[in-house]
Amino acid sequence: MKLAKMKKEDLELLSHKDITYYILEEDGKMNTADLFKKVVTVLELPNKTFEEKIGDYYTLLTTDKRFILLEDGCWDLRSRHTSDKIVKIVEEDEDDEEDEEIKEDTLLPDKEEDNYDSGDTDDEDDYDDTNEDLKDLVVVEEEDLEES
Question: Given 1.10.10.10, 2.30.30.140, 3.40.50.300, 3.30.1360.20, which CATH number is that of 8-89?
Answer without folding.
Answer: 1.10.10.10
